[in-house]
Amino acid sequence: MQRMTALFSAAFLALGLAATQAQAQQNSATDTKQSQATAPTQDFSDQQLQQFADAAQEIAVISQEYTQQLQAAEGKQAQQQVRMEANDKMVKAVENSGLEVDTFNAIGQAIQQDPELMQRVQEMAKSSTASGDQNS
């Protein structure tokens, strides 16, 4: 499943990430507001950026799966249930990468404001996906 994300390495930053951030921010609105205020000035380690890239790839796949389910859901309650389930999976993907949701969101906001940082994360995503494909 992660191998498919090679095609999304550029797209997940532009599209999937924005939706993911919005959903994750709904869960931790207070903490997220604090991280939003400091996001542009934070320096992130290469390890954090790699964890972000790995989590974002997983999130892109989750987002794609749940977008289809969301479109098929009938009624607001069913749609809300799909959103909550997707959000839970996305949060777990972030936590499994070793990052906290707030850090993930802060990196996401920072890369939206810094094209060089976005390029670094995209390269990390491509490298980790290419390594995974070659090892299989």
Automatic annotation (TrEMBL):
Domain (DUF4168): residue spans on this chain: 45-121
Keyword terms of this UniProt record: Signal
Top-level lineage group: Bacteria
Positions of the UniProt region annotated as Disordered: 23-44
InterPro entries documented for this protein: DUF4168
Entry-linked Pfam families: DUF4168
Stretch forming the signal peptide: 1-24
Biased composition (Low complexity): 23-32
Name used for this protein in its record: Uncharacterized protein DUF4168
Organism per entry: Halomonas ventosae
